[in-house]
Design a protein that fits this description.
About 50% of the residues lie in helices and about 15% in strands. The chain has about 400 residues and is α+β, with helices and mostly antiparallel strands.
Length: about 400
């Protein structure tokens, strides 16, 4: 088994890393401590990413933006495979120090664009995919409710049949990108008696009558990804808003979760690579008691652990992405990956902060934000506890 990347994949990854590096100064100037969450979401940087082709990686050339970019990622005419896409986004995470931007782009790409691309009819895809990739539209994915997170059978948001469509009522919370979104991929029960088998999926215009989106919720990390609550109050949507068939929502949600858990955290693995390089450099050059701190076993052991976490996470990422590239199911494998990467990124972020000492604790040191950002990873897209439940259930327990 050959684990080496091809020359084409290495070039692709390097292009995305270089692009992430290029955005560095612009991101640093936009993520001002004390600024509002809405201000921290930089639409100019988002548009730059769209123009460069970052949100077009899954689309054929005829469905991409026709704008002339200042910078191009030199994508091939054909859509990237899932494996090549995660390799590219790993490179972006390595170059781009903003976990928030990488998370926002991946959320939009995998939970909104890819879901519509996979389950939308030709009209839905024709109307939306180019606009979602060129920056004209931003989407969000609305599943979680105040009383349900990973238990869709208990979903309380309903979509009741009405003249020429459905009427939505309910509330979705902790929805990333909701305050800046234009469309919502929302899940609602069209037949509560059938529990999870009565769930359907809809593409809804966020500005429709009957929809209220809260102000951005302040949170511990990922400040530049605005998160909010969406309330549906007798919101009428046309029949054409239905994504897939009625009652197919749970299947769409589960399939979407496989891709989300596989691909969402690829950029974090790139960030772990940068963390490791930064920690090694600091350990070599920080002198304490007449020697570099890398000579102290407590420091060198942490760096060794960071390397092991990085390599094991990357191997599992490539395995799961290879399965999805071949169209194979990977429910257990994607849950394993989500569990492993999120926990590893958190632990390595803690180790990097401890290696850098006081410099790692202050904001100006550029290390502590990884700790805050990584904590969210053990919660979103299914908590670590839920991933363990999924894995155990797939093993027959």
């Amino acid at each position: 088994m050959n684990f080496d990347l091809s020359s084409t994949q290495l070039t692709l990854q390097q292009n995305f890393q270089t692009f992430g590096d290029m955005l560095g100064q612009r991101i640093a100037s936009s993520e001002v401590v004390g600024g509002s969450v809405t201000q921290l979401f930089d639409t100019g940087i988002w548009q730059t990413c769209c123009d460069a082709g970052l949100l077009s990686i899954l689309l054929p050339v005829d469905r991409r933006s026709s704008r002339t970019p200042d910078y191009t990622l030199n994508l091939p005419d054909e859509p990237l495979s899932i494996l090549d896409a995660v390799i590219a986004m790993e490179g972006f995470g390595q170059g781009c120090h903003s976990n928030a931007l990488a998370f926002a782009l991946n959320t939009h790409l995998w939970t909104v664009q890819h879901t519509i691309q996979s389950y939308g009819n030709e009209k839905q895809k024709g109307d939306l995919l180019k606009r979602l990739s060129n920056g004209e539209l931003i989407g969000c994915h609305a599943m979680t409710e105040p009383d349900i997170g990973s238990d869709p059978a208990s979903m309380k948001t309903t979509a009741t049949r009405a003249a020429n469509g459905f009427v939505l009522n309910g509330c979705k919370c902790f929805i990333s990108l909701a305050p800046v979104s234009d469309i919502i991929v929302v899940f609602a029960s069209t037949n509560p008696d059938k529990a999870k088998w009565g769930i359907s999926c809809f593409i809804v215009n966020r500005h429709s009558q009957g929809i209220t989106v809260s102000e951005p919720t302040e949170k511990m990390g990922l400040e530049a990804v605005p998160m909010g609550t969406i309330t549906f109050d007798d919101c009428h949507v046309p029949e054409s808003a239905l994504l897939g068939s009625e009652g197919a929502g749970i299947g769409i949600a589960n399939a979407s979760l496989e891709y989300e858990r596989c691909c969402l955290l690829a950029s974090q693995i790139g960030r772990m690579q940068t963390q490791l390089a930064s920690s090694i450099h600091y350990a070599r050059n920080r002198i304490q008691s007449g020697q570099s701190i890398g000579r102290f076993q407590s420091i060198s052991n942490r760096i060794a652990d960071m390397k092991v976490r990085l390599e094991t996470a990357r191997l599992l990422l490539y395995k799961v992405a290879s399965l999805k590239s071949r169209g194979e199911p990977a429910m257990m494998e994607s849950a394993m990956l989500k569990l492993l990467v999120s926990e590893h990124f958190l632990q390595s972020s803690m180790d990097a902060m401890r290696i850098h000492g006081g410099l790692g604790y202050i904001r100006d040191g550029g290390v502590e934000h990884d700790v805050r950002d990584s904590l969210g990873g053990v919660l979103y897209a299914g908590t670590s506890d839920i991933q363990r439940n999924v894995i155990a259930g797939m093993l027959g327990l």
